[in-house]
Every structure is written in C-alpha cells, then in structure tokens.
Amino acid sequence: MSAQRAGRWTHLLPAGYSLLLTLLITVPLLRPGYLLLRDAVSTPRSYPTDAALGLGDAAPRAVPQDGLLAALSPLIDGGLIVKVILVAALWAAGYGAAVLVRELLGAPLAAQLVATTLVVWNPYIAERLLQGHWSLLTGYAALPWTVLAALRLRIAGGDRFERFRNWSALAGCLAAAGLTPTGALLAATVAVLVVGWRRSAGVLVLAAVASAPWLVATAVSGVAAEPSDPAGVTAFAARAEPWLATVGSLAGLGGIWNAEAVPVSRTTPIAALATVVLLAIVALGLRTVVAADSNPDRTRVRRLLIALAGVAVLVPAVAATPAGLTVLEWLVVEIPGAGLLRDTQKFVALAAPGYALCAAAACLRFAGSDDKRAARDAADTGSNSSPTPPADRPARWSPAWAALFIGALTLPLLDLGWGVGGQMRAIHYPDSWHEVAERIDGPGDIAVLPGGMFRRFPYSGTAPVLDPAPRMLPRDVLQTGALPVHDLTVTGEGARAQIVEDLLLEGGPAGRLAEFGVGWVLVERDTPGPLGNSTATLAQLRPVHSTGELALYQVPDVRPRPTPEHRSLVIAAHILWAILLIAPLATYGYSTLSRRARR
C-alpha cells in the first residue's frame, strides 16, 4: 500500500468508526417519528413565537435552538432536523477526538480509535441523551474542533488569509457549540484557554457574537434581572452513583443529578468497575501527554487540557458539598444569569479532550513497552536485528492494545447501544395535534391544562416529557418554568403563566384570562395532572375543537399583548449567529475557487 493511500485510510477509518458508534447508539431513533424524552421535544413544525426567540416569560435556555427549528421546519420536517443534528454531533465528537490526538500526539490509527471510543461511548453521552439534552451534545462535539481551531490560530504565521481562515473556523465552532447557552460557555472556555492571552480578547468578542441570540434576548426581555430559585442548586447538584463518591462519579464522566436518566449499568457495581478502568487508562497515558516535545505550543496545549480536565471534575464535586451549595445559592440569588451554572455536571464535558489524549497516549506507552521488551530479547539472544523503529510501532503493536482498551471502555456500558437500552426511540403524535394547530387562528396566548410542564402520554413511554404544545402550536404557550425534582419543585420565571394556571385551577372568571392576554385554552386529555376546578372556567369559553386526546377553547374578548419592542433586534442576533455558523463553509468555498482560478 502506498504512503498516500495509507494516509487516506488513516483519515477515513476514524470517521467511519465514529459513524459506526453513533449509529449503534441512535438506530432506534432513526425510524420515522419524533424524539420526545424528558427535556427533548421534536415536532413536525415549529413556529417563530416570542418564546422561540427567547422573548417569553421564562429565561431563554433553548435559544437559538428553538429559533433554528422554527426557521427550518417549514422547509424540512422538524423531527428530521433534530435527528440529523444529533447524529452529526455524536459523529463529530468522535472524529474530532481522533483528529485531536493525531495533531497533538502524532497518534497512529489504532490510538485514534481508542480516543474516539472514549469520547463517544461514555456515561456523559448516555445520561445527557436520557435527559433529552440533544442540543447540549453539539457543544460537547465542538470541543475537540475548538481546540484544533484555537491551536492553529495560536501557531499561525504571518499569512493574512491563513489567519482569517483560522478565525473563521473558530467562529464556526463557537456558533455550533452556541446552539445552547451551556454549549457556548464550554467552547468559549476551551478557546480562550488554548489560543493564548494575546488573542484571548478577540476570542471573547467572537464568543459573545456567537452567543448573541440568548445574550440579547436575556438583556431585552428583563429576565436577567430576575434571580433564580436557590432550591435549584441542591436539586441539580452532581450526584454520587452506586459505590462511587461524587468525585468518583464525575471523574468517570457520570453523576447527572437525575437518578432516573441513567443507563441500567450505572445503577450496579459495574459503574464502579467502569470508572476504575477508565481512570486507569487515563492514568497510563498521563505521563506521555504532559511530557515535553519539540513543539512547545503543542506541549503547552496538552498540559492545559489535562489541567482543565482536573478542574472540570473537581469544581462540580466541590460545588456539591455543603459549602459549595451555599456559595452557588448565593450566586444564583445575587448575580443575574448565574442560574445557568446550577447543573454543574454539564461542565464535566470539559474533561473529554484531556481524557481522549490520555487514552491515545496509553496505547503509545504500551507499544513502547513492547518495543523495549523486543530489544531486550534480541540483546539476550545475540540477535543483530535492530529494535522496532518508533515510526513502525503503531503498525506492529497498537492494534492489539487498542482492541483491549476499546473493549474495556465499551463492555461495561453496553446498554448505551440501541438507544440507551431502548429508552430513546422515535414516537408518533396523534393527528389531533395538527388539527388543533390549524384551528388557532385568532389573537392571544395559549394556556394549557393539566397544570405543570411535564406530561406522560400513552405514546411517549413511562418517562415524563416536556409538554410539546409550545413547539407544536403557532402562538406562545404559557409555561411556569416550574420543575419538579425529587421531592421539591424549583420555581421558574413565568410569573404570568403561574397566575393564569392558578386562575384556571381555581375556576376563575374568563374575563381574567382575557386581561392576561390568554386567547386560547388547550386541555390535554390523555395525560395525568392537576385540573382543579377548571371546568368552571372552561364552561365560560367557546369550544372550538375536541378529540379523544385534545380539546381547544377560545377565550372571548381577549386583549392581545403587544409585540415585544425588541423582537427585530433579537431576530438580527439570530441571523448574526447563523452567519458565524456557516462562516467556515464560506471560507472553504472561497479558498477552493481561488485555487481553481490560479490554476
């Protein structure tokens, strides 16, 4: 095989292997239907409501995610868009890990596959999928690519176009990660750390632009001035898994706050065994990763990623202690926007690049040990053959060790496959949802019964799911933002929604609904939940449509709320984010055309 063909396979095989792992996880979801699992809600069509743009009563936590779906779903089925993004994110995470260890360590093919396995097949992926945080995984997937873009920017020479291309690539990474606010924070942290202090100001500006949709929406909606419920700090703190302390769970890339959103294997002693194996592999490669080489920039970046991995594990662990909880409670009450930090386990994603480097380096270290043993054997027998040269080590030794490490990483978490043990699958909505959406043709927001934000539909499985009404219907749906966690309820920012919900449950007058801008009431009949004395209020409304699953009522004499003053500004922020997202493609196209023109 020629060197050129071998190099091509070295690039293609990690990409194909990452795709294979991704498909093993997502196959049940690829059937026709929609993702509806806890916080994940995909629908055939979304609408550019105020809430979708981040201008609702609640904090803009799903921005620009909801705005993107609202813009694209009139052209492409919304469920398909979510599936494509999720598959692309998992694939990009694995392939990015392979490219990262190749660039920073010179890792051979087999070691790249180990890094890909660790980044794709781990408890963090399993738990976030079960919690429904599909869009957060775009931020996770962007991390290795952000490291690479920032590294190239750090070592870029004087060529102006080369620098522009590197900035463009970094902009695309930050925008992709910025599909959610947490993802934006993850990528910005890595970019600032890697790029160096001289360019950090430019990176911060770029990160702010990539985060413009939710930053602008937060600023103009007034939500930033509202403190978060401090009860959420304890509710969303990292959790110790069986036979592991909190720090052990986090070091094993697990420990999500919701004990129900974990694969079965993480509820058994296998979780402790898997964590020990993972940390052993990381420890085996640590010395190689932090060792100095001929390129000081790459050495420094490797060391920074290892330090970041340690911080990403220790800080959430400390935050789950009584002292840490006290500090976080003060932050969310006193500092606007600090509620974004409540779910500290999300930030364990920052450990993934460092872990990937160590896993690949562990392969190299064992290859080196085998080569030394071969040299000693040759010396003892008086052989004149020379030791295996470093360039040949991977081809001779790495595959066997890689297979061992891949098995050690995947076997304890086999139930990540097939939709995390079949829990993540495609569902089908009743036709009544489409019928109701077509009947809503007048002014006013929508109130929904039963009370609360979570549902258990016959077609959605046993896990609670977010109400799909806000993404399914063409008007703003009032939601309180209250989240039931364990034995307590974390209050949300939706004060108007809470007043309207209380009014319905108490059987209040329809005129009061109209005063609060409510033009419609939707009753979801096929899910349990509090209804209170709402029949008294519904009797005063005009029935519009009724099926076995849904009933729609119209409120007379509604007083529609005015269009938000800054809606156009928020839309402009979304457009700016979209421009950054496609910037690398535009730059690549320009460079391709330029090369052809020169030829």
Task: Tell me briefly what this model is.
This protein is 58% helix and 7% strand.
Main beta sheet: 4 strands, mixed
* Straight-line N-to-C gap: 30 Å
Uncertain runs are 369-397
Mean of the pLDDT scores?
91
| Share in helix | 55-70%
In total, the number of strands is 11
| Count of individual helical segments | 24
What proportion of the residues form beta strands (DSSP E)? Answer: 5-15%
Radius of gyration: 26 Å
Number of domains: 2
Structural class: alpha+beta
Shape call: globular
Q: Give me the side-by-side strand order of the main sheet.
A: 4-9-11-10
Topology:
Elements: H1 3-26, E1 34-37, E2 40-41, H2 65-72, H3 78-105, H4 109-120, H5 123-131, H6 136-154, H7 160-177, H8 181-195, H9 197-210, H10 212-221, H11 231-235, H12 246-251, H13 270-290, H14 296-319, H15 322-334, H16 352-381, H17 393-410, H18 417-422, E3 426-427, H19 432-439, E4 445-449, E5 454-455, E6 465-466, H20 469-472, E7 483-485, E8 488-490, H21 495-505, H22 510-515, E9 518-524, H23 534-538, E10 542-546, E11 550-554, H24 567-598
Parallel strand pairs: 4-9
Antiparallel strand pairs: 1-2, 1-3, 5-6, 7-8, 9-11, 10-11
Helix pairs in contact: 1-3, 1-4, 3-4, 3-6, 3-16, 4-16, 4-17, 6-7, 6-8, 7-8, 7-9, 7-24, 8-9, 10-24, 13-16, 14-16, 16-17
